[in-house]
Amino acid sequence: MANTCSRSTRNVDFEPEQKMESIKELINKAGERARWNLCQVLFRVAELPFPWMVDSSPDALNKLLADFPYIQSFEVTTRDFQVHPQILPADLKNRPHLARWHRNIAELKNSLNSESKMVASTTEQVAQGGVENLPQMILETIDKSKEPLDSLQYAAQLKIDHQRVVGAIKSLQAHEGLIEVDEVSQKRLDLTAEGKEIAEGGSHEFKLFEHIGKDGAAQAELNIRKKDSVVDECCKQLNDLSLGGNVDDKIKAELKKRKLVAEVVIKGFRVRKGSNFSVTISKAEIDLTPDMITTGSWKTATFKKYNFDAMGVQPSCGHLHPLMKVRAEFRQIFFSMGFSEMQTNRYVESSFWNFDALFQPQQHPARDAHDTFFVSDPAAATQFPQDYLERVKTVHSKGGYGSSGYNYDWKLEEAQKNVLRTHTTAVSARQLYKLAQEGFKPARMFSIDRVFRNETLDATHLAEFHQVEGVIAERNLSLGHLIGVFTEFFKRMGIENLRFKPTYNPYTEPSMEIFAYHNGLKKWVEIGNSGMFRPEMLLPMGLPEDVNVAGYGLSLERPTMIRYGINNIRDLFGPKVDLQMIYDGPICRLDKD
User: Which residues form the Aminoacyl-transfer RNA synthetases class-II family profile domain (predicted)?
Assistant: First the structure.
């Protein structure tokens, strides 16, 4: 009836700012017919609630409706539904225009009631059955409707989250040919935080007007109201927009410019019947069983397609620690280069094999309690190869094999002290002695195991860590051969840019530190230590004079920390390790970025 009233009152001089008391007084003074017309004006223009209408004249209403030849031209509002119950059946006699309007509103009411009941029923099904019933409900809705189902509208009707509808549609897509889906997107304007504040409490201008006094003050001209009341157009426009009302494009642009509204894109789906559409969902078989093959039922069965893009199910078994993953990669590199693995099951070692056999003097600082863990029980070892023990004692105290030795009083008691091994070179010493006793054969050996140092704990140092060590025993082996082995070894780790720097080790001469260029840090970093074992270490074991032995070592923790992006070694090894980190850690490939 909005168009009816606007046409009937186009020449009425009405000020929306008039006070409510003046409006009621105007209505009461008017005659019956004029009162009805005036009520219609106030009803539409001033947007007063229906109870302010004093009288309802059927003749006046019939005349107002006569201006429109088609009921479809009406813009129906809630006010039409408010007036409709006021009209009695007797009022419709001999008033065709009023009767036509009355029938139209009645049909519209029935239609809305039917739709409301359907939505309520569907909503109740969702509430009772949950999301599991949605696929069936969607199929039934598509079957009854001639138009494709819009997922956004459907979710709004059911008053549920749109993602639940999307999930149901995705489950239906698993059945081939059941439905066809097109992706659609809608643009809409949503109120920003400031826009919502204005829509609820009024615009800033309106609030300012409300704070200005009606009379003002003589000395403050700006505080005087020039109008008794104003209409908060900004608040009204925002409310109309939020309720889906029609708002002029220029007004929308202005609201966007003021950042009171923002444009958002909503993605949804339009669902229609597929080539194999059915209201009944047949359950697809997941596995091909022996019974299906025997009976032949597989020929008519429908099988669920494999989703090769799915993440898969995480295995419930244990997971390798990152250190073990890197260790496995190191072992593979050693094996591919012809190395054999040494036995490293001696955590407790005598000082003889840990220090003396390596031509490391008993006064060396590394043997002090500040760097070594000494075992209290048993505190001393007693079994040594006596002839080898004497040769080691001699080369330390008097020299030999072309060396002057250290010239000090070598003590057996010091060599007998048990320690937690400080390096796996003690294992290499045992293996080289065994190699000499069994008759020398060229050998390549490696070990990866735990060693212990009495060091201060910090982000890069622990009291126990893992050492990777390689040993090569060959006749006429040179330093150039050793550098060639290093180059190939680290190349298989993905490290090609190497540098070598001379250094000092008690049991190797010459000795080298190995550096590699770190692309992430943009600098050279030390990655290992190496050297040729001294004759004072090899010849007392019984190895031939033309045999040279090269050794090199590096830690297991440093490359693991770099590979997995761990900054604190205590997050990698020890009681503070996060088990989820172990669970999520990927497979290690040292030669891949």
Answer: 325-575
Q: Please tell me whether residue 443 adopts helix, strand or coil conformation.
A: strand
What tokens appear for 558 in the block?
């440093």
Report the distance separating Cα 344 and Cα 358, nearest Å. Answer: 17
3-class SS letters over 193-227: HHHHHHHHHCCHHHHHHHHCCCCCECCEHHHCCCC
Cα separation of the two ends of the chain: 72
Q: Treating both helix axes as pointing N-terminal to C-terminal, what angle do 162-173 and 151-158 enclose, rounded to 10 degrees?
A: 130
**In the block, residue with structure tokens 């204005």:** 198
Alpha-carbon Rg for the chain in angstroms: 46
- Locate the domains of the chain by residue range: 2-86, 133-273, 323-584
**What percent of the chain shows pLDDT beyond 70?**
77
The count of other CB atoms within 10 Å of the CB of residue 195 is: 23
Q: Which CATH superfamily is domain 323-584 in?
A: Bira Bifunctional Protein; Domain 2 (3.30.930.10)
Bridge partners of residue 188, in order along the sequence: 264
In angstroms, the CA 485 to CA 475 distance is 15
Residue range 24-68, pLDDT digits in tens = 454 454 444 444 444 444 444 444 433 334 345 777 777 777 665
Residue 18: pLDDT band with limits 50, 70, 90: very low
How does pLDDT run across 219-261, given as a tens digit for each residue?
A: 444 555 566 666 778 888 787 777 667 778 888 888 888 888 8
Work out whether the CA dihedral 117, 123, 129, 134 comes out positive or negative: positive
**Residue 73 predicted with pLDDT over 60:** no
